[in-house]
Design goal:
alpha+beta, 7-stranded antiparallel sheet, 4 domains, Immunoglobulin-like, homodimer, 697 residues, Glycosyltransferase, globular, 26 strands
């Protein structure tokens, strides 16, 4: 298990490469110093959001229900990761919880996953930079979980305190196996980062329990997660433990999903629930989401028959990660084919230019093909992260630029737009247009649709997801297959790989994504190493040049978007790749009616946008030409120094309107220069208009 | 009261002019022969809508609750205007009604208004064309209401059967005074049309009762309608009876509205209701409509302080009609000023190019300024009717083209789009764009948002509203002030006016709105008459020519968009007005971000649209030029013969896309000719795409 398979590419582990400078060093540092501590604070309190300011106000009526109860009874209570007072397991069974409108009482069914994602991110951080304080917090949380764990291995905060005695009675809706998945990922990360295995062993005991009660055998529940996630976590556990039962369980979940009779129906019948009237509160009339209760969970069809991406976007992404993982470790071609069907449907019909997916806020779900409204885009940050995670896994199955291009598109746009420049505030929904007045007028259904990033959420799924992803970013950059190293993402990093038994040092120096020049140094442990480097040439790059030790290499083999450099490397051998990074204008397929007559600006992997702060109001009246002159301009004052694009454009002359609403066409247009900034940085200044797609005439 | 005031313009009564041919003759005939009978059938049954087909399926579970109960008890029950079995008043008091999801049990709180609007429309029809059968139906319904009327004059079906004993306990929400208003309008219409006064007397008794229990005096309720409508009806009743108390009551309602303490709060406190949690079912979470419970009802401020149009659009339109009426009859300048504030806000910031208003479906309400989404436009048919009604009333206060232009814009676009070409199906919501797949994916919140007109609605407010409006259309065409006759709308009609004691015949012959030529003949009773004709020159007309008895008249006085012809007329004098009716392209104010980079096509009063049926799919990818060649073309085969516009345009060449979602801009464009049809005729063929605003480059 520890060696790279010869016949299959495998992602180079995040541990093997450290970020050494540039774009990601700054982000990882902020992630450790600001974001992870900020998220940890979320766990301690809850409050009310002011959506226009991105501030939350601690609200006494919203304090942890468990805490209140415990205080009332003058008995201790514990919430792993939350305010830890003491541990008494038997206090609160059975009583109905009261829910304060707009607040989710804690622990909610997702509690363990929020905490686990934080532990996972913090663990990666510990590997990069020792932090005894953080390590102590994690150890204390692990201790809490050890106390929480039942004799049989079961461990879940919500079902211990809020619905004791109800374990595995609502796998359909209550995120029990989803929590198990995130806890597993966290345990693996903590083990990999620190070598400590208490959490890993705890989770093995829990997974062993799950394996005893769920599975194909008679007498077991023929269940699969209501929210996919455990599938991919089991593969991580399999990789770190070598225990094939974990792979088999993941495979079972994938294969069982969507079979008839539906497990969710069986469970509902057993528990006396109506599958069309789910019990979850606070979500509106769920039964009116098309094809609820199956398609929302991607349980309407067996996974190999799912040709169209439907339902909850994050669920599908985690499912696809699991499918790709299982395909990789079982060599199941039919699963690879199923992944490709969904991949094509999503990336060719249901994805924003930012890599955002899941357009529809109602149900956080995929809409129909080409339905990509910009202002109302939901585009959950977690879904873009899921897409990137899946894309990287696809590169294990097939080395093709199309996967890496989407991985990068999501990463530099729809993923990192989720966090503010200061690392403290977060978007769940990532719109592609913003008109602030819309939010003042908003109604309940637009929950989580905000014009500015928020300081807290009752359920904190995206912030720690982003934190763990950022901290393990090098784990998505490369795959290795035998003696071939595929470079998919370029970042300033250094590390080692094993090639034919020897350790080979690999160093990348680059100002990418701001600059297209990448220096790559190969240092074999021995005198030389025979190694093929496969360098991705992004689809957006109009051209490239490769030099080896200063000499231009021409006529290299190119395949599926990679240039292959096959040679014997000696210490100090240096490759210089230069990608053409001139700004481009993009157009969308005519079926995307929202973008007809419009263009988007891209430079390198970044999609750009216009903001009111730089360009005034009525951004939507700005018109570009198909051949608008665009000039890169680094602004050292702006948001800590960022690349901008100055674009020659036009806007309607306004003096003649005098308040009229309609008039005969025939406006004159005035030349102007507009300033575009990378999309991911929008909404870091004053609240205002924003547009990605711009009129073009 | 019967004479036209010398110092104030007054609308020429619908009775005084009959349609004699052309566009409106055909519509009125269909209205009488098809639409009114179709609506009458609605009253007899209910069912389930299939929103994609515009068909409804009678559903046994949705049958009239009252009917079911009556059948169960083997006792008769009656529903005025519905299935009339017999009349027993005392059966159903107090029991809770069960509501079948998606269906509104009958009688709902709006029942009397639906029936009254039908009676009103049918009454106008009786005047135009005798129909003993219809007259008998109306008489029978009036008899039912006579039986229903209480000793004290009170009459309301819902509060008699469904909530007996609860009268005037929920004026806030339950449409009691709204129903009284429509019944009053119906009674006036039936009286004017037939001379029969039973219904009028019945309503006078009811209004007298209302006047005894509501008003400024101590001991009375200081209430005003929860849904405005009675205000304008009281003016009609005042005009037909001369009873000043009715004018005073209308004035009281207008003046009391929005005063603090809010009557709705007083009522809620008295009845133990939470004003933030209205009791109505089936509407979603009403408390989340901004500024509910006051602004939704335009009760947040006294009417003279309402500068911005907010809340439920139809409510505000009826309020403004009442304000304009009261201003006209009390010469209250402050009310005229208040009307103008709201007029400017709506027509300069919150109105679609079709005259549709009330953009937001959630609450059927006005959104914020310039928020005019095309695909999601709510634009209730009743709101456009209300705007037209208000515009006509404003012409009584000030003769300015701006009012008549909007009256006409609404009339020929957002009003008549409400009914299908065959007169049998209806839109509540009038979108400006359509992508059918949106509706298949729709969720609960889009109730009443359909891509095709529907055959029935549980609450039938728009269909009979349109029917009564169509049948009384001549009542909106002219105002008279002393010896000046203002012509606002041009239609083929003839009738008489009183000028200085003599009857003057006025005949208009025209193919308007298809043609810009209008012949006008004046026939005084005596030898001659001194009369000023004021002819509106629509703002869309680039020029005009006026001839009198064949001679071109130049240098006529023009003011506020009207050309004034002041002369002494003898029998047979003929005016010929010719308006320039070439097609135009319109643009919207840059603040309307949805329409930036787009144009709309207008010809005469009609806004045009493209439909998939004529132009294929991906309509949104069609681009016009600011100087696109447009050619009128009458298509005798299409929808019974309609004017079309053939427009030179371009669309992106598609062959290179091969399924890609985004690519570098630089498409080639191919010339094409597109065919536009009048907007009001959209969705009369197969379901498909539709667009009013088209890209322009």
């Amino acid at each position: 298990m520890k060696d790279v398979a010869e016949k299959r590419a495998e992602l180079v582990c995040w541990k093997n490469f450290k970020i050494s400078g540039g774009f990601w060093e700054e982000r990882q540092r902020q992630n450790r110093e600001v974001t992870l501590p900020t998220i940890y604070e979320f766990f301690k309190d809850t409050g009310r959001m002011d959506c226009m300011k991105g501030l939350y106000t601690p609200d006494p009526t919203g304090k942890d229900v468990l805490l209140d109860r415990a205080n009332g009874k003058e008995e201790g209570i514990f919430l792993p990761g939350g305010e830890i007072i003491s541990f008494q397991l038997s206090q609160l069974n059975g009583e109905e919880l009261e829910i304060t409108p707009g607040l989710v009482p804690r622990p909610h069914p997702y509690w363990d996953s929020d905490v686990a994602k934080w532990i996972e991110g913090a663990s990666y951080g510990l590997f990069h930079e020792a932090n005894p304080e953080v390590e102590a917090v994690i150890d204390r949380i692990i201790e809490d979980y050890e106390k929480l764990q039942q004799e049989d291995g079961y461990v879940n905060t919500y079902f211990t305190f809020v619905e004791p005695g109800k374990r595995f009675t609502n796998i359909h809706e209550k995120h029990e196996l989803y929590c198990a998945g995130h806890m597993t990922e966290a345990a693996v990360a903590y083990y990999e980062a620190t070598g400590k295995d208490r959490y890993l062993k705890l989770m093995c005991r829990y997974i062993d329990y799950i394996d005893r009660v769920i599975g194909p055998e008679e007498g077991k529940l023929h269940a699969y997660p209501g929210h996919q996630e455990l599938e991919l976590a089991l593969i991580k556990l399999y990789k770190v433990t070598g225990e094939k039962r974990y792979l088999r369980l993941a495979e079972y979940f994938i294969n069982e999903r969507g079979k008839q009779p539906y497990y969710f129906d069986i469970e509902c019948a057993r528990e006396g629930r109506n599958p069309n009237r789910p019990s979850g509160k606070g979500f509106g009339r769920r039964d009116e989401i098309p094809k609820w209760p199956y398609a929302h969970f991607q349980a309407h069809l067996p996974v190999r028959q799912q040709k169209e991406a439907v339902g909850h976007a994050v669920r599908l992404m985690y499912q696809c990660c699991g499918m790709a993982d299982v395909a990789a470790y079982t060599e199941d071609e039919s699963l690879k084919k199923a992944c490709d069907d969904l991949w094509n449907n999503i990336t060719l019909e249901k994805m924003y230019v930012t890599g955002g997916i899941g357009a529809e806020s109602y149900g956080e779900r995929f809409s129909f093909s080409y339905q990509l409204p910009n202002e109302q885009a939901y585009n959950e940050t977690c879904a873009a992260i899921g897409l990137a995670m899946w894309a990287a896994r696809m590169l294990q199955l097939e080395n093709h630029r199309k996967y890496a291009d989407i991985l990068e598109r999501a990463l530099y746009n729809g993923v990192i737009s989720g966090v503010s420049r200061d690392g403290k505030k977060f978007f769940y929904a990532n719109h592609l247009e913003c008109m602030p007045a819309v939010y003042e007028d908003r109604v309940e259904r637009q929950t989580r649709m905000f014009p500015v990033r928020q300081g807290d959420f009752p359920v904190s799924c995206c912030p720690p997801n982003l934190a763990r992803f950022t901290e393990s970013i090098t784990g998505y950059a490369m795959t290795q297959k035998g003696t071939t190293l595929y470079l998919h993402l370029y970042m300033d990093m250094e590390g080692t790989i094993q090639v034919a038994g020897q350790e080979v040092g690999v160093v990348l120096h680059t100002a990418y994504p701001y600059d297209g020049k990448i220096l790559l140094q190969i240092t074999p442990q021995e005198e030389e190493v025979s190694l093929t480097l496969a360098l991705r040439i992004p689809q957006w790059s109009h051209g490239y040049e490769v030099k080896c030790n200063g000499q231009i290499l021409s006529c290299q083999m190119e395949q599926d978007g990679y240039v292959y450099l096959d040679r014997s490397w000696t210490s100090g051998d240096q490759i210089e790749l230069e990608l053409d990074m001139r700004p481009l204008l993009l157009e969308a397929n005519p079926k995307v009616r929202m973008d007809c007559g419009k263009v988007a600006v891209q430079c390198g992997p970044f999609i750009y946008c216009l903001e009111e702060e730089d360009n005034g109001t009525e951004l939507f009246d700005i018109c570009l030409d198909a051949d608008s002159k665009m000039e890169m301009s680094f602004d050292p004052q702006l948001l800590g120094g960022i690349p901008c694009i100055l674009i020659q454009a036009k806007r309607r002359a306004k003096e003649k309107w005098q308040g009229a609403l309609y008039r005969e066409a025939g406006s004159s247009y005035e030349s102007c220069t507009v300033k575009a900034i990378p999309y991911y940085l929008w909404s870091n200044r004053r609240i205002g208009e924003m547009a990605v797609w711009l009129c073009c005439r």
